[in-house]
Each structure stands twice: as structure tokens, then as C-alpha cells.
Design goal:
0% strand; globular
């Protein structure tokens, strides 16, 4: 819920750029540590975190697509079947439902 708190926080207008930098930095760190993690459990957790972000609408869908979709879909090639299975469920039950994949070629 940290991401939701960051994205929903009331920021003064002059801090909007700082807010975007902080959010982008947080998501880049999340992607680097989890999405590209050396342990399959980290990568699977990344898929689950992305699923929760979409489910909770913690980010606008456009921001999700811009910041998280590409690294998320890169896990389609993961060497661990469990990671690919969880990703397939997220794609079928969330991303397609919300139309997030409409501009992305699988």
C-alpha cells in the first residue's frame, strides 16, 4: 500500500515534479530488485505486486502501462514455469480486462 499512498498523496503544485521523480524512482527500484531479481521468488513477487497495483488502481492505467508493463511482459520468457504461469493469470484476468494490452504487441 506504500505505492498507493505515494500516488494518492496531496502534493503542492511545486512538488509535482518531485513526486513524479520519487514515484518513477520507486518503480524503477521495484523493477530492478524484483522484476530482474536472480531468485525466481522475487520475479514471481514482482508479477504479484504488479497485479495488485492494477487491482487496487494504485496507479493510473496509463502510468502502469508506461512504467511497468514492458518489464512485466518481459517475464514471459522467464526460465521458471511458475513465474510464467502467474504472469499468464495476470494477463488473462487483469491486463486484458482493463484493456492495458490494447496498445502492446504480445
Amino acid at each position: 500500500h506504500v505505492l498507493k499512498q505515494v500516488s494518492e498523496s496531496s502534493w503542492p503544485a511545486q512538488d509535482e515534479a518531485n513526486h513524479q521523480v520519487t514515484l518513477s524512482s520507486l518503480l524503477a527500484d521495484l523493477t530492478a530488485r524484483f522484476g530482474s531479481g536472480s531468485q525466481w521468488m522475487l520475479r514471481q513477487s514482482y508479477v504479484n505486486i504488479c497485479h495488485q497495483i492494477v487491482t487496487d488502481r494504485a496507479l493510473p492505467l496509463e502510468d502502469f502501462a508506461k512504467l511497468l508493463l514492458s518489464p512485466l511482459l518481459a517475464l514471459r520468457q522467464d526460465r521458471v514455469p511458475n513465474v510464467r504461469l502467474v504472469l499468464a493469470r495476470v494477463i488473462n484476468f487483469q491486463l486484458k480486462y482493463h484493456g492495458i494490452l490494447s496498445t502492446f504487441t504480445l
